[in-house]
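Appendix B. One record, verbatim.
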Amino acid sequence: MKFSASVDIDQPIDKVAALFADPSNLKDYHPGFLRKKLISGTAGEKGAVSMMYYQFRKHEMELKETILCNDLPESFNGLYEHKHMDNTMKSTFVALNDQQTRYTAEIHYTRIAWVMPRLMTILFPNMFKKQTQKWLNSFKDFVESRSD
């Protein structure tokens, strides 16, 4: 399953990309985010592997992130692996003008190994796009609230 979502952010591209690149900001716009732990490589660079931990209902969820490409401020591409599904996410940033940036996320689910998520992709594919759009909107609100 593939889809994309985008949002226009009222801040310059360099500021948007810098806030996106800093993992300490994840708690401010990713609901349930707990922490990120570098496993191998150099943080933020191609090939770096990290574990990301989220609170999901009453359980802690683990997600393995592998950076496939980091060409910020223009783009960032990562592979995200979970025991039930894997996806890639390519984030691109385009300056619309000096004070506005378009953030587009292209998602490609490459493996769905559990019955319930597989059914959800068939019956309710827009649910995945709506969740991604919600995250992008949350990031927009976070970036626009930063006045430094």
